[in-house]
Write a structure and sequence with these properties.
Layout: E1 3-9, H1 16-23, E2 29-34, E3 44-47, E4 50-53, H2 61-66, E5 73-77, H3 86-95, E6 104-107, E7 112-113, H4 116-122, E8 130-139, E9 141-145, E10 156-159, E11 183-193, H5 197-210, H6 223-229, E12 254-255
Parallel strand pairs: 1-2, 1-6, 2-5, 8-11
Antiparallel strand pairs: 3-4, 6-10, 7-11, 8-9, 8-10, 9-12
Length: 268
């Protein structure tokens, strides 16, 4: 079975190597599409009353990718002002016209890392057309996670044997509504809340800058300092969701005792 894994990246230096290493033995090609411009084409963010110019690039993700020196790993610049339908365009307009059509395409974000047994199990449940795996969203460290959230797909699987092209997709690469897309009974680990303090601050500020422009939920400006940076399991562990008015969507973080992916060595 010919398998392509594809990523889209603005930032993601913290876990991109671990993510790619978790799939490399199963991939015919690994295609990383990157940009140095945030959604909404913003060039600055007003944060706490101060205008902050956005650095280009945001972090060292390209350096981290290039350090791997994998023969089947390729990077391409591809900027989109809005994430809606982005994955559809990446596959239909970039991948399929330029490469031999694969049997399966797997889309994932740079903070998502597979455990070997979960990826091998997922590959036994190839969808008729499109499906997704659920995710374990870890919180600040691998010792904690947030409860499973509905409508939060992890990696997306596209069975290209039965698809001539990928249909319209939402911001997460999954056709809407997610409730109508079958879930594969496996899990992928998401380390998006476990990045460095510097990178989490920029993720937060960028979301503040482009949320309204792309029709996304507006974050609480104080979330980084009050909910993430100063988080404590005993004293500050309630209503952790970033979106304004939706704080209860992440009611708390809970201990995580499951096995981590083999490529993760936690040093923070």
């Amino acid at each position: 079975m010919k398998i392509y894994f594809i990523y889209r990246c603005l930032y993601g230096e913290d876990f991109i190597q671990q993510s790619i290493l978790s799939v490399k033995d199963y991939a015919d090609k690994i295609l990383v599409f990157w940009t140095d411009t945030p959604f909404g084409n913003i060039s600055e963010v007003i944060y706490k009353g101060i205008t902050q110019p956005i650095p280009k690039p945001i972090d060292r993700i390209l350096d981290r990718i290039n350090e791997l020196e994998l023969p089947n790993l390729m990077t391409y610049y591809a900027h989109f002002p809005d994430p809606m339908n982005q994955v559809t365009v990446l596959i239909n307009d970039y991948v399929l016209p330029n490469y031999e059509k694969p049997d399966l395409i797997v889309f994932l974000e740079p903070d998502m890392v597979w455990r070997k047994d979960q990826l091998e199990l997922a590959l036994k449940f190839i969808p008729d057309q499109i499906s997704y795996v659920k995710q374990v969203e870890l919180w600040k460290t691998p010792q904690f996670r947030i409860p499973e959230r509905a409508k939060r797909p992890g990696a997306i699987f596209y069975n290209m044997k039965n698809l001539s092209q990928v249909p319209p997709t939402g911001r997460d690469g999954c056709p809407a509504p997610v409730s109508r897309v079958p879930a594969i009974p496996t899990l992928i680990h998401n380390f998006g809340f476990c990045v460095s303090e510097r990178n989490m601050l920029w993720k937060h500020m960028l979301a503040l800058g482009f949320a309204k422009l792309i029709g996304d939920r507006v974050p609480n400006e104080d979330w980084y300092e009050k909910k993430w940076l100063s988080w404590d399991f005993e004293t500050n562990n309630k209503n952790l969701e970033i979106s304004r008015g939706r704080e209860h969507w992440i009611p708390c973080a809970i201990p995580y005792t499951g096995e981590l992916p083999e490529t993760i060595t936690w040093t923070k």
